Amino acid sequence: AMIYDEFVTQIEGHGRIWFDIKDGKVVEVRLEIHEGSRLFESFLRGRRADEVPQMSSRICGVCPVPHNMAAIQALENAMGIEASEQTKMLRRFMISSQMVQDHALHLYVLAAADYLGVTGISEVYAKFPDAVKRCVRIRTVGNRGIELVGGRAVHPINSIPGGFAKLPTREDMEKIAKDFKAILNDCIETFRLFASLKCPDFERPTEYLAIDDGKHFPAYAGRLVTNRGLNVEAKEYRNHIKEVFKPYSNTKFCVMNGHGFHVGAIARVNLFKDRLNPTAKELLKECAVKFPSDNPFHNNLAQALEMVHYAEEAIKIAEELAVKLKDEERPKQTKAGTGVGVVEAPRGTLIHEYTVDKNGIVKDANLIIPTGMNTTNIEEDLYALLSANINKPKEQLKRLAEMLFRAYDPCLSCSTH
Length: 417
Prior knowledge:
The protein is of the alpha+beta class. It has one domain (about 1-415): Cytochrome-c3 Hydrogenase, chain B (Orthogonal Bundle). About 45% of the residues lie in helices and about 15% in strands. Strands 8-7-6-11 form a 4-stranded mixed sheet. The longest helix has about 30 residues, at about 85-115. The protein starts with a strand and ends with a helix.
């Protein structure tokens, strides 16, 4: 029997899961992403380099910061601009703020209902009002952090190639450090809540990809590394990550070595749990779930753990800059060329590549979005999950498939950029 799922709810964008079962076997699984193509890679051509980061952030209203940061980093690499250490710290602070507020949105508003036995956020609020209030407190501070450094909470305007149009003050950094300290406990409670919820029992080993700057838990810039031995410079991504078209989807599917791979919170925690901040590390020790984990449903738990880590990271950076933030000259374009930028977005590794001419005009753009990277892996996971539960009633299969898709925290309008 063919099973068509109507559009999957409680995710960003329009997509559905189609699977075909014959004689007790899963014959085919399709992840159909119907979100319209948005053609960013085409209309960014011919634009001035300084316009691009603000335009590319529009790929996603949910997580504009990583797009803004990846674009800036790629353009700096293309134009021979070396950002200062302080600038990189402020960028890591922005990404940390984004992670905290974005994970809160996914966990409480989109994912929680699956595990709390209710249908959506309004029911979550009716039965667990404290949890939703916690979510709002966390998001308020996360947004405040982005706004402080980026100029506004959505689509930052203050971060530009070379640095920032206007720097925050030391007092600002001191105040935001206090704000993040005030929600650290909310983040810890979030982790405890998600650690207490029962996940479907399912495992499928796969390749996990994240960025590695040699020092920090993944956030801003680095090499591309996986648990299966890949370790290359970001600019070599085309040799390893292949984009494939499938007729039933508006998103390009990504494969590595002929199979799917997984990016996102679970990949970062699986690969770099040793670099987590102290509180996050302690929480992981007392948790029944052990990482590295091959259960994609544990992506939710990994996100909750990351909220604690990135809140600690934001505090650490803000406290340091509260003492030593200083005014700096912004470096200017020194060459033409092609540059690649990689950052970790909430949903995983994000790659932007631009070619810029000597007049600072963008001639070519290529963007690979985390949800696009995950598409093949989601199909492979769905196939394995449905095969393992083949004897369950159709409704249950549908629900399991949706829960799995949601656990990836997909962003479909990003994926059809």
